[in-house]
Design goal:
- The structure is a homodimer of 408-residue chains.
- Chain A is an alpha/beta fold and 408 residues long.
- Chain A folds into three domains: 108 residues, Winged helix-like DNA-binding domain superfamily/Winged helix DNA-binding domain (Arc Repressor Mutant, subunit A, Orthogonal Bundle), CATH 1.10.10.10; 128 residues, Nucleotidyltransferase, domain 5 (2-Layer Sandwich), CATH 3.30.420.40; 150 residues, ATPase, nucleotide binding domain (Nucleotidyltransferase, domain 5, 2-Layer Sandwich), CATH 3.30.420.40.
- Chain A is 45% helix and 20% strand.
- Chain A contains 15 helices and 16 strands.
- In chain A, strands 6-5-4-7-11 form a five-stranded mixed sheet, with helices on both faces.
- In chain A, a hairpin with a 5-residue loop joins β8 and β9.
- The first copy, chain A, starts with a helix and ends with a helix.
- The N terminus of chain A is likely disordered.
Chain lengths: 408, 408
């Protein structure tokens, strides 16, 4: 094993556990202490993850290609690939067709058919969504369960039952289960607070792992969504993804690193007050919270009222357009300081397209440009996710791929 | 060299060059590519930095202690220490006094007297401030130069002349020169835009390095300040430092990593619009920018006007208190979305204490708590820096310590 191999692997560790990786960062505070000793088996795991990442990203290649791409020695690559083949994660795909002289190289690839991933999206207030996915994050099977107002333990029971049904629906060994929950979730998979589900300090990761016997990763739904947008949606590595539904929450990636915050509450912008001219009453008791302006149930109720009230369709359309414009403007007012402070160049919205796309999105980006420095943010882009309503489920797949293939 | 040694060193690299380190992060985007090959001499430099950081943080210890603390083998430590002694960075401090049997251990430490650091703070609109500092960031010698309205090349000439005078004032070999400039500065030390100094795309790092023959690091003044607060001011690793002077700018650390933004403009919050009820005209042509509310010249002018206008001292005091409260409230309105989005628990202000401490800071923190979720931000702290007006100079020292000792 060469020096470079371990170093290369370490970036994998940092990627998958940004919070832990970052705790040792920055010189030269007197509190700085070297991190815990890294044992040889950790280095091996990092190198294994590096091989998997390389194959995952590039597809079938020879062992020599992997060696060249990763900087690992051929001996190390052969050794790791043998282990990955034995584990059923990598498969030989036959010899390379080509014109090169000499013995043709055997191509290897991730065995994308050998395992499946289970994802759960608990962020919809009416249904829990579940899916069986392949290793490319493609959805093979869906199961939805009506929440029927369940909270607390009954809601946990629905999660466990849905997980069991998804396991039964899977047709390959399950690599892991990714769960995207609303609320504040820590890195140990404890849901500290998800008011809509009545969950407080719920050990969701442990509960599902105990019941299923599978590796389980739990994260906040907006954090899952931003991982999906980055992994599958061709997003930049500096990105804010804003989910607008029953509530409003954001997921943040900075330099490709997910931001969790000092209390795992990063992105919880729904109850930030917007503007200084009053606003609608929020369910939380305050007025002019971002959620009170832009949450989907509020917009739907207002649109219904406009339609019931308006004398003709044209008038209704104009008033609905203005409603969506106002909501977009409020979203822009709330986000402008964040865009300025983080120098963001890209914002992605996730939620019902028929409400977000058009007047709302347009007003948001115009407001953002008007309320920040044009010099920097004149080229700011704002778009809807291309991943649609499946963004959270696919984010759950990214969580599993990262946790199970990225780092053991 | 063991596997663990290289791994340990790599966290140093990530710390000092967060932007470059982060670009390879996150699985499993198809665009992910392994980072450039790390050569053995890099690993050696990382291990060297690890030894220096350990000694810098903990002070005199034996080679065996260093080995234990770092996880590096004794042979590697002895080898690196010999090199560091030859370079004049580490010195033997005599044998340990104590009761342990056997041969007493020789203590080694950073030779804190062997080198000095030069720092320049270009962020004050009236003067350039310079200092010669020791390796603990203590200021040994100060030189200030009146700016006298200089901009463009004449301002560069003042920087070069000040640097030359500081080099003459230094009494030890200079480890490096740290320069904190206003405006947008990239990692190569190019000042992309510093309007007050009339600088655009100025290669400040190269200019000063060519003139001085010393290693030079250039950064934005607020970014320098947040490093100082983290390194010397006992701040947490999640921190926003807001500098209020002629303009308003912020430095951000998240998980101990400095945030620079996609265009190196992170923290440029001075021209974010505050509130939705109008406000003072800003020099930039917009209204209600954060700077228009809280910049020091504006507050000083208003206070002068109140004093000239008020019939008695009590009335004047009340009106000044209200002015500062209003400014603090506006600062809180601007920062609340950032606090919510990043889940910050600590904000530090830097600027004239007589204006910031008291009514202004109090109104800021009250506004922040009122406009974010009490559940998370009820315990938010806001305080003035303990480093006073020297925070930027000391940040320049941190930049040099990081660049020269942290990573070669």
């Amino acid at each position: 094993m060469t020096a470079s191999e371990v170093q290369r692997g370490s970036s994998t560790l940092d990627a998958a556990h940004p919070n832990t990786a970052q705790t040792t960062a920055y010189l030269p505070g007197r509190r700085l202490r070297p991190s815990a000793k890294v044992l040889p088996e950790h280095a091996r795991n990092h190198n294994r993850a590096l091989v998997l990442q390389t194959l995952y990203g590039a597809g079938a290649m020879s062992r020599a290609d992997v060696s060249r791409e990763t900087g690992l020695t051929r001996v190390t690559v052969s050794d790791l690939v043998a282990e990955l083949i034995a584990d059923g994660l990598v498969v030989e795909r036959g010899q390379r067709e080509g014109v090169r002289p000499g013995k043709p190289a055997m191509l290897i690839d991730i065995d994308r058919e050998a395992h499946q991933i289970i994802g759960l999206d608990l962020s919809d207030y009416s249904d829990f969504h579940g899916a069986v996915m392949n290793l490319d994050g493609e959805i093979l099977e869906r199961i939805d369960v009506a929440l029927e107002g369940a909270t607390g333990e009954p809601a946990v029971a629905k999660v466990l039952a849905l997980t069991e049904r998804l396991l039964q629906a899977s047709t390959r060994p399950v690599l892991g289960i990714g769960i995207a929950s609303p609320g504040v979730v820590d890195l140990a998979g404890i849901v500290h607070s998800a008011p809509n589900l009545g969950w407080h300090d719920l050990e969701l990761q442990r509960r599902v792992a105990d019941a299923s016997g599978c590796p389980v990763i739990v994260s906040n739904d907006a954090n899952a969504a931003v991982l999906a947008e980055h992994g599958f949606g061709h997003a930049e590595s500096d990105l804010m993804l804003v989910r607008i539904g029953h509530g409003v929450g954001a997921g943040l990636l900075l330099g490709g690193i997910a931001i969790y915050g000092s209390r795992f509450a990063a992105g919880e912008i729904g109850h930030v007050t917007v503007g200084t001219d009053g606003g609608p009453l929020c369910a939380c008791g305050k007025t002019a919270c971002l959620e009170a302006w832009v949450a989907i149930p509020r917009l739907e109720a207002e649109i219904q009222a406009i339609r019931a009230d308006a004398t003709d369709d044209d008038t209704a359309a104009l008033r609905i357009d203005q409603l969506l414009r106002d909501a977009g403007e409020r979203l822009g007012i709330a986000l402008a300081p964040v865009v300025g402070a983080l120098d963001l160049s890209q914002i992605v919205l996730s939620g019902p397209e028929e409400l977000l796309d058009g007047a709302l999105a347009q007003a948001t980006v115009e407001t953002l440009r008007n309320r920040t420095m044009a010099e920097f943010h004149g080229d700011l882009t704002l778009r809807l996710t291309t991943l649609g309503q499946d963004i959270v489920l696919r984010g759950a797949a990214v969580m599993v791929l990262s946790g199970q293939l990225g780092v053991s």
